[in-house]
Amino acid sequence: MKRKQNAGRLLGALLVALSSLVNASETKFVQYDESAMRQLKHSVITASSAEVTKLAYQRLLITADAFLSRPEPSVMEKTFTPPSGNKHDYLSISRYWWPDPSKADGLPWFRKDGITNPSTQTDDVDRNRLGIMSNMVHKLSLAYFLSGQEKYASKAAKLLKVWFIEPTTKMNPNLNFAQSVPGNPNGRRSGILDGRLIPKYVLDAVHIISTSEHWDTEDTAAINMWLKDYLTWLTQSDLGQAGAKQSNNHGSWYFFQVAALAHYFNDQTLLTSTIERVKASFEYQFDEQGKQAHELARTRSFFYSCFNLDAITSIANMGNKINQSIWTYESENGASVNRALGFLLPAAMGGEWPYETKGIDPMDIAPLLARFNKYTRSDEYEAALRAIVNEFETSQVLTNKAFTNDALLKLALFEPQYFSSNSR
Question: Could you tell me if 383 and 10 are in contact, meaning their C-beta atoms sit under 8 angstroms apart?
Fold first, then answer.
């Protein structure tokens, strides 16, 4: 009798666990805005969208169609083997590290900030494949949501199953060997940055294709188990906990990943505590003028300043979903998102930038201005964003071929009011 009762309890606990894993996909969007997605879909279906949105939608479908014939990448394809001896473990090599010419074997490698070593970006390791998979899943799922065509969901499902679910091809849910450095046997907390693409693109994709005939509750439970294990690795492993202590963009992207996964799994306690940690980081990430000392020390100072704010404003989007505002928050030292953007804006508009950089691309700041202006209206930022977009519009003939830039594509789909050619 007692064995039957214990077995019953175990079965009940298992069913509850599986139910929680399935229900996670029923949450609202993590990155996308629910209302904006509905409005965009309605405008596409009724052909009432702005002309610029129609062009961007055409480009999205052209891109998604091209993805249909591409193979599904897997971590098992790399030619290098991680120190664990297990190819299921993700492996990448840090891009700014080079062999030491004074050593016969070049070991250990040393750092040249801002100078990419081409040998770190090959298919010998997994970074490119992770980027390709994430980008394809992202665009295919959006194409499915807007068009309703199952072929896009089918391909997205295959990609997700190969990378996260199928035993022979899936990645293990850790980044123990991400951004490794030859000659350095230790795991590097900076490698957690590679994982940002998973919460950024995969979570909403799972939510979108959960309505497809090519995805079922077993698939949802399987991928959610992977994501749950990854969140556990981020928050409980020694390397993951070290990642939380990084004081620059790496730390911000770590918090982004934890916040996104917490939101996906409806863990309000973890999401709220992570947002509070992001607010606390303002004290050491920004000064009262909006300068980001850690990013300004880089050789690509403008890009990395925007890159850090990309993470923080993405977290701010999630904060709004639970009424925890980061947009208007100001730390005791006067630091805020507004001042950080205000510090960068003059350079983006052609002003002087007295820090080392490899050029300034105004499109790096454009999506940040759009996010800020959505929740905290700013005439200055709106005018600047219109000017940035107008500069792009006047530099070329605006056809669907123009929207190969992801930031521009999203602006055209969701924020067409910033384009001069936005007539309906």
Answer: no
Q: What element of type H or E holds 133?
A: helix 127-147
Pairs from 395-399 (Cβ < 8 Å, separation ≥ 24): 398/52, 398/55, 399/55
Query: Closest Cα to residue 21, out of 194, 265, 232?
Result: 265
Helix axes 406-414, 34-45, angle to 10 degrees: 80
Residue 211's SS3 state is coil
pLDDT band with cut points at 50, 70 and 90 for residue 393:
confident
Q: Are strands 177-180 and 110-111 parallel, antiparallel or unpaired?
A: unpaired
Neighbours of 91 (CB within 10 A): 25
Per DSSP bridges, beta strands 97-98 and 110-111 are: antiparallel
For the beta carbon of residue 238, count every other beta carbon within 10 angstroms: 10
Query: What separation in angstroms does the CA of 242 have from each of 52, 179, 277, 298, 301?
Result: 44, 15, 14, 21, 24
Determine the 3-state secondary structure of 359 from DSSP.
coil
Tens digits of residue pLDDT in 244-293: 999 999 999 999 999 999 999 999 999 999 999 999 999 999 999 999 99
pTM: 0.90
Retrieve residue 309's tokens: 């704010």
DSSP state of 232: H
